[in-house]
Sequence to fold (441 residues):
Amino acid sequence: MVVEVGYAQAWDLEACAPWRPMSAEEARQRDAAGLPYVVVYREPGREAPLEVRLVSWRDCYVGLWVYDAQGRRTYDLDLRLLDDPSRLLRRYSVGWYYTDPEMAEFDQACPRITVELFPDGKGRRTEERQGQGGGSCVTSPVLRDDERWMDRPAFGEWPLLSAQFHGLTEPPALETAEVALAAQPGDADAPAACWRPPRPAQPGPINELFRPGVRVTDGYHPEMTVVEPHRVGTLRVPSGLLAVSGPDLGHGDGPRITVPVPPGEYVLDEARVRFGYHCEWRDAEVTTTEPTAVRLLVSETPAATWEMALGPDDDPRLFVEQQTTGFDTDGATGCFADAAAWNPLITLFERGLIRGESDLDGYEDLDGGSMFMQRTWDEASGGELMSFATTGDGTYPVWVGRSEAGEVIGVVVLLEGIPELLPERDGTPTDAAVRAGSRLG
Fold:
């Protein structure tokens, strides 16, 4: 069997076709420079590709998509380049098992198996069953080392990795295809429909959540209006190291997230939105105000950028599309604290909240804020802790805002996911939306 190998700068998902085809030599140069490029494997006479591979060494990433004869994607594999440059981790894969030739791509009724693997040998296999019974089954995959990792081939020496999916028992003969179109000059960005390496979750319009009058939606409530932030109090961080974590989990290893800030005392406030909804038990339209985020304000300077804070074990090279990381809670509680005084502050928190010790020095319940609940302080260091209610259990990302010069201007925890900006009522985007779009796009 002969398989043609073609190269391109990107792959257009909507058109199911390469974008800006290029020669093998041009692709080799991009490979050496770490720039993204695509390799397309085709069987002559077959409309759909056999396999599409995206390489982006600057992102430590190689992706593989396998197509069936109907042009449906049947397998998706993410390979990651980590500390050993000679091999790749099979980080994440999804297989779709179409039960009918006419079944649409990614049909909800299509059974699928997802496998996540990690460098430490851990992993998770999720089998989603469809049809009668349905449900899913989650297990820990037991794999050999060579099933978790693959050797990194040199440029031009990659095999057809999807050969087994296409029923090939012998390695096909690979021939470099002629470039149908000359590569276009210029470095314009690829269309939005083009495949790209996975990106972690983006911050969204965090600045705008603290600007009264801005209209947003959380996807459930179609329209919410930002109102004046509510100032809860202040937090002393004399050590210059801020902790953001869940105070309800074991604290022997210290806080989950830490962020260096100048030593000082900082304002804590809540972002809030007002919206109307139909109350069933009243059978009437009502208006309410709820918090959307909490912030430690380091500077009045607006943030130029926002980044997701990482814990000591977080490795961005392992992130899949839209992945978040942050602190965990199983008690619907988070906190800001002075990291240097973490252990005494958490001990006071537990004694006051869990054990209910009365007249405890260094602990108080708070009133007035819609979500802040307890404050503790360490007399020896002067450090403080302020806890707040989240909207439930789970993982909450911590976003760090920075100025143009890279200085920390604020630390924010979003409570309801990442909201979207709404346009002005006349249909034009707000100035805030324009700024957010240019910053995040």
